Structure formats: C-alpha cells, structure tokens
Amino acid sequence: MDMQTYLDSNGLTIYTFADQHGLSATTVWRAVKRKVLRPSNALLIEEATGGAVSRMELLYPTANNKGRGVEAA
Question: What's residue 64's pLDDT?
C-alpha cells in the first residue's frame, strides 16, 4: 500500500502521522510523493504502519510502480 492510501484509510494527515511517530512532516511528505527516502526513515515508516507500507516500496518507488509516471529523485 502506498503512503497516501495508508493515511487516507486511517484518517491521518501528514502532520499527525509525523507527530505521532517522531518523523518530520517533510519525510512523510516525501513518502506520500514517492520520493526516495533514507533507509532509516523507510524502516521507521514500515514499523509505524505495521508493515502496511513496506520499506521496499518507499526505497524503490519507481520499481514498485513499474515506472508509470513516478520519478525516483
């Protein structure tokens, strides 16, 4: 599941998720926009979502979207 879908399905905003899990809003925004994250942040998000958003999807967004209109950087 992508980060935006996770937030929407749990009634969260970027800011509330970031606040609840000790992340910056910028980091969560990058996850929502499918920008490449630091591995440590990807792991934190995966743990915070109980695995619903996988670190692999966060670390390699274009590979997980099969290259359909998503930029890696």
Answer: 61
